[in-house]
């Protein structure tokens, strides 16, 4: 079978398991403008884990210095999602009880979290925990996906979690949501070579590299951001200014050992956004908000043919993009 035909066949297979999901529902009485004192409970992990073929290949990746990241080990998935969602919800009207206070309160009262999540009567558990912690609402969370799959010439990392927000008086459901996102690496992301040798060289290594745990960092950022947007806002407030991206530029910064300067991208626009640089197909570089509305990040080496876009995503999930002009792009 020719490389192009293999690519088409594999793309059709993966399309059937595309990992993007956004489900949510809110009760009519859930008013996001009210400052509910809320306890974010420790999350539980219900992910199935890596597939068997992925386990074989990731054994070496997970100890490689440049590809491993202990913060994103599967055993820490529940803590990762809890921390990231808690951080994103700081911008909401929810009055969040500090996580350490929640944990100390649960330990003081001898709460068995495993039993809490197994309980069929979630309303009763919500009432009990709200009373013990002295809050208006309780947020439950569970990890649904934190997995890697391997298909020889394609791999995929998938993350996902689900939450329930329940009020503390009756235990009624205020909000339920689930977010899931996946990113693939391999043949579908690469230009194909006309020769079988070139095809093999370009496709067999990328899927293995694509299973690096570092990919969980960006994926968990994205789904946490989207969940917070769904949970905290029903859209842009009346009178809110539209999302904007005013300016993108590149400055030369500290020189590398090879004497070539590192290039720093600077973008200005709306504050409090998720920002990133998209390089060509499938490569993304996170940008960090150094001050309100100012985003920065180091530019990676790129090829002349690659397109560079800066994108901002607002809390209401609105997006705005600007292309980095060719004369400013790193060579």
Average of pLDDT = 77
Please identify the oligomeric state.
single chain
Rg, rounded, reads 22 Å
Shape: globular
Describe the sheet with the most strands: 7 strands, mixed
Low-pLDDT windows of residues: 1-17, 234-238
Per DSSP E runs of 2 or more residues, the count of β-strands stands at 14
Strand content: 25-35%
Q: Please, could you describe this protein's structure?
A:
- With 331 residues, the protein is an alpha+beta fold.
- It is built from eight helices and 14 strands.
- The strands form two sheets. Strands 1, 2, 3, 4, 5, 6 and 7 form a seven-stranded mixed beta sheet that branches. A seven-stranded antiparallel beta sheet has the order 8-9-12-11-10-13-14, with helices on one face.
- It is globular and about 60 Å long.
- Residues 1-17 and 234-238 have low confidence and may be disordered.
């Amino acid at each position: 079978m020719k490389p192009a035909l293999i690519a088409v066949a594999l793309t059709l297979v993966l399309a059937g398991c595309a990992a993007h999901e956004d489900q949510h529902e809110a009760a009519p009485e859930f008013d996001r403008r009210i400052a509910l004192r809320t306890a974010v409970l420790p999350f539980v992990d219900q992910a199935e884990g890596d597939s068997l073929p992925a386990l074989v290949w990731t054994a070496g990746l997970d100890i490689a210095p440049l590809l491993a990241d202990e913060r994103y080990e599967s055993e820490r998935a529940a803590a990762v999602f809890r921390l990231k969602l808690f951080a994103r919800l700081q911008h909401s009207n929810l009055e969040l009880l500090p996580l350490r206070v929640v944990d100390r309160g649960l330990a003081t009262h001898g709460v068995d979290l495993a039993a809490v999540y197994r309980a069929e009567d979630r309303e009763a558990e919500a009432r009990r925990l709200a009373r013990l912690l002295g809050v208006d609402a309780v947020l439950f969370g569970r990890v649904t996906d934190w997995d890697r799959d391997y298909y020889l010439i394609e791999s995929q990392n998938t993350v996902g979690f689900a939450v329930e927000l329940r009020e503390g008086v009756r235990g009624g459901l205020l909000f339920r949501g689930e977010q899931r996102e996946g990113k693939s690496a391999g043949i579908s992301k690469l230009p194909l070579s006309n020769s079988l040798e070139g095809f093999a060289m370009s496709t067999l290594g990328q899927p293995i590299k694509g299973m690096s745990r570092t990919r969980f960092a960006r994926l968990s950022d994205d789904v946490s951001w989207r969940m917070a947007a769904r949970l905290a806002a029903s859209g842009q407030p009346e009178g809110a200014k539209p999302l904007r991206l005013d300016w993108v530029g590149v400055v030369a910064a500290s020189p590398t050992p090879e004497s070539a300067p590192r290039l720093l991208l600077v973008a200005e626009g709306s504050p409090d956004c998720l920002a990133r640089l998209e390089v060509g197909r499938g490569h993304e570089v996170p940008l960090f908000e150094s001050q309100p509305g100012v985003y920065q990040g180091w530019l990676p080496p790129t090829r002349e043919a690659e397109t560079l876009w800066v994108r901002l995503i607002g809390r209401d999930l609105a997006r705005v993009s600007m292309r980095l002009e060719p004369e400013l792009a790193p060579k």
